[in-house]
Amino acid sequence: MAEAYAPPRSPGAAIRPLWNQVYLPNLIISTGQGAMLPVLIYAARALHASPAVATTIVALNGFGTLLFDLPAGQIVARLGEWRSGWVATVTMLLGLAGCLVASSVAELAAAVFVQAAGLAVWSLARMTHLSRVAPPFARGRALSLFGGVLRTGNVIGPFLFVAVAADNDTTPAFLIFMICVAVGFAWSVLARDRADHAQASQPSERIRLHHVLRDHRRNLATAGVGALGISMLRGSRVAMVPLWAAHIGLSSSSAATIFAVSSLVELGFFYPAGMMSDRWGRKAVAVPCLALLSIGHVLLPLSHHAGTLMAVALLMGFGNALGSGIVMTLGADLTPEVGRASFLAVWRTMSDGGLTAGPLVDSAVVSLASIALAGPVVGAIGLLCALIMGRWYAEPARPRH
User: Fold this and answer.
1) Between residues 28 and 321, which one has the greater pLDDT?
2) Does a structural domain hold residue 4?
């Protein structure tokens, strides 16, 4: 008689197979994305786009993902995780090939949007897979590691581009991303868990949007607001730190150095953040993450030179590190067994909407009032989100392994 399967008895043993099956393929793909993002605006400028149009094309990368989050849920629900990965890979490669051969701003914009749509499907398929296979007692660690892996790739990518590219040549960025997509997908195919293949290929029940909103309205109004706030603060941080650096007269290299150092801080804390999440609950990391990012925004106008701005940026970086993977972890905790992809599509729409909303709120405040008020306004919204989540989110009981 065959021996019954025994689940891993420790978080480390539960997560170990995910390195080969999930983390390394996504590290490769996020490295390619990190190589492309910093030079996308230069690719637009090379096609004679104005600064405003070039910025819009960069924004399309985020908007394309946001607009395709809900359709991605339908694709993953209809095709299953495995076939959706094929669709996502082909779509990303087509979009990146379009970026390479684009001869006009309109062609580049369309290609960027196609690439972003493919990335939305890939991200949702991977998140659906992780939410299903990561055991609940190690879910915080598993998804914090996933978030850390994506950030690591985005840090490696620009250095890889600099190592191989000539001055003012953006072509290598798209080539690197294409190679990374192909290699990352091939790796995931070869390393897949064949015992899980049937379930990964199984379509899931599709749930209509209004049913998801109705059935999960309490969690979306509490944990969802917290996730939206974290994403908004993260998006605002990327915009406000360089903007304030320029406002106080720092050079672009100084601003880049400050942001890079604060981002490196995050890489050292994502696994401890996952351990805290598993041991003490999701609010133990989500609420401090919201609070520290918010306080950093409030303190931003008080920084008048490189040293004080570095201190504020490090505070934001530490707060962001505490929340590594927490948005995905909350989504995985709350997702139902039936309609998993449909729920996660709504969840990703909220989080990606927050990333987009942060810079838009900054822009509106700067236009209507002053740059000194942008940080405190966003910080106040973040503190309100922290209050809502800390006061009203009913955290589920934490399972023990």
Assistant:
1) 28
2) no
Task: Report whether pLDDT(151) > 70.
Answer: yes
Look up the pTM and report it. Answer: 0.75
Counted domains in the chain? 2
159 and 112, same structural domain? yes
For every residue of the chain, which 3-state class applies, written as one string?
A: CCCCCCCCCCHHHHHHHHHHHHHHHHHHHHHHHHHHHHHHHHHHHHCCCCHHHHHHHHHHHHHHHHHHHHHHHHHHHHHHHHHHHHHHHHHHHHHHHHHHHCCCHHHHHHHHHHHHHHHHHHHHHHHHHHHHHCCHHHHHHHHHHHHHHHHHHHHHHHHHHHHHCCCCCCHHHHHHHHHHHHHHHHHHHHHCCHHHHHHHCCCCCCCCHHHHHHHCHHHHHHHHHHHHHHHHHHHHHHHHHHHHHHHCCCCHHHHHHHHHHHHHHHHCCHHHHHHHHHHHCCHHHHHHHHHHHHHHHHHHHHCCCHHHHHHHHHHHHHHHHHCCCHHHHHHHHHCCCCCHHHHHHHHHHHHHHHHHHHHHHHHHHHHHCCHHHHHHHHHHHHHHHHHHHHHHCCCCCCCCC
pLDDT in tens, 299-315: 999 998 888 999 999 99
Q: What CATH number has the domain bearing residue 171?
A: 1.20.1250.20
pLDDT in tens, 62-79: 888 888 888 888 888 888
